[in-house]
Structures are given as C-alpha cells and as structure tokens.
Input
Amino acid sequence: ALAGAASATGCRVLLPRADAADPGLPAALRANGATAEEVVAYHTVEGPPASRAPLAAALARSDLAVVVAASGSAVRGLLRLVDDPLVRDRLDRLALVTIGPSTSGVAREAGLAVAEEAAEPTPVALAEAVVRAVAATAATSLAGTPATPTPASPAPAPTAPAFPEAPA
Output
C-alpha cells in the first residue's frame, strides 16, 4: 500500500504511457487496490540515427557547459549516438545533470559521471541543478583545475510530492 494514502480499492486508473515506461507506478497503484490500465501512448526511440550529426555538432561547441538527461532512455539514446571516441571524450568532459536517482543510476551504469542531480523530478528542480553545475564548472575553471564532473552526493529527499521521473 502507498504510505499515507487512502485505499484505491475498486478505482480504475488509465495510464497512457511510453512503451518503455517504468513499471513502478502501475505496480504501486495495484498494490493499493486500484486497477491500472496501461495503454502505450507513444513509442520511445533511443538514439535515432538522424540525431547523430546534430548531437556531434552540439557537443563540438566550445561554449557547451552542461548536458541534461531527464530519463534513462535519454541517457541510453545519447550513448547510442556517440560512437566516435573523440565525441565520447567531449561528452565525458562535460557536466551531466540528471532529473533524479533512476536517471543517475542509468548514467553511472553506462560509465558517465553525474555532476548534479535534481532534488526532485520537477522542471524547477532540474533547472536549479543545471545552475549548480554551471556554477561548479565556472568555479573549477577559475581555479585552473579541469572541469571534469565528479559523482554527486545523493540528492536530499523531496519535501513535497513530486511527479515520477520520465520513462526509463
């Protein structure tokens, strides 16, 4: 059952989702007595070939400071598109900001360092994490040290209810 929630027994819930969506939400709803009807509303395409050249061009920009990932599928797609060792080296030298622990886990499992993680999976918290990463990058550049990202400490627990992360 969901902590602190009233029972959802007998309630029918429609979940239009990505085909690659995390099963956690429907499982939690079912555990609380709801009937969760999952419908694939969109198909996730990780690393579409047409994005390879625009990604390489974006990563080649000297003024690029941060890469933001709002889902595990975004991380996997990004890595699928980065098949040139020089482009991967550039990606590895940029600060990576993620929307939450699940996305950070996918990034770390793929060998990427996470510079910042949003405190909660909301647009505002993600933007705040980007600002922190930019500030840290600027501070290390001013100090004359390389701006290589390092694993971030775990984000504090959300203080208010938040939406689940985007599909993995």
Summary: Residues 150-163 have pLDDT under 50 and may be disordered. Residues 123-142 form the longest helix (20 residues).
